[in-house]
Design goal:
Layout (H helix, E strand, L loop, with lengths): L6 E5 L4 H10 L4 E2 L2 E6 L3 H6 L4 E6 L4 E4 L6 H8 L3 E4 L1 E2 L2 E2 L4 H10 L7 H4 L8 H6 L9 E4 L9 E7 L4 E8 L2 E8 L3 E5 L10
């Protein structure tokens, strides 16, 4: 039987994903909202034109959420290794969150949560098309921008895809009006993540 309560775990800086992986590996339910971008490691790598990599940005820095007991061996090991500080709570009692609170948070953050089953494979995609087929780089509703050039600071909303997902349809403002343009995805990078549209129940 799995542990029934969600808790807020405070992690050391930059350890959110490692803690998530460690808990997930032993079957613990973990929730870590994040934003994922495909980008060069740094400006030097960008100028060299080297292959871009997956960079994961947790939305709640130094926090993750898990259904785990305070005395779980993996959690104790993470604490001994100073990857986890402890539970967020009051008077030595950890806060408990209900599943609907996690669900609301998931919806509010655009359903963009870290998932080791798919995000661990992202770096193996070696073409823009492969990134898009895996739903990795950006999706409909996200805002993108040109990677370089005179229009590289203009936000463009993705409204669809074409040509076997090799091109993105974006809304571009020019000459005082909005126009839909089709741009090769290899020329675009993610600017910010939009919220996924949720269909109303029939």
């Amino acid at each position: 039987m799995k542990y029934p309560h969600w808790h807020i775990i405070r992690t050391a800086p930059l350890q959110e994903i490692k803690v998530h992986d460690a808990l997930y590996a032993v079957g613990i339910s973990v929730f870590t909202p994040c934003e994922i971008k495909v980008q060069a490691k740094n400006q030097y790598e960008a100028l060299k034109g080297t292959e871009r990599q997956a960079v994961i940005y947790p939305l709640f820095k130094t926090y993750t959420f898990a259904k785990v007991a305070m005395n779980h061996p993996v959690l104790m090991d993470l604490r001994d290794r100073r990857m986890v500080y402890w539970f967020l709570g009051n008077e030595h009692k950890p806060y408990r969150l209900k599943q609907d609170a996690i669900d609301r948070m998931d919806k509010a953050t655009g359903y963009n949560q870290y998932d080791p089953r798919k995000h661990s494979l992202k770096h193996k995609a070696d073409t823009p098309e492969a990134f898009m087929r895996s739903g990795f780089e950006f999706k409909e509703g996200d805002y993108v921008q040109f990677e370089r050039g005179m229009h590289d600071n203009i936000p463009l909303m993705v409204v669809g895809f074409a040509n076997g997902d090799r091109d993105a349809k974006v809304m571009l403002k020019a000459f005082g009006r909005e126009m839909m343009q089709t741009i090769p995805i290899s020329e675009l990078i993610l600017l910010r993540t939009g919220k996924r549209k949720v269909q109303d129940a029939a």
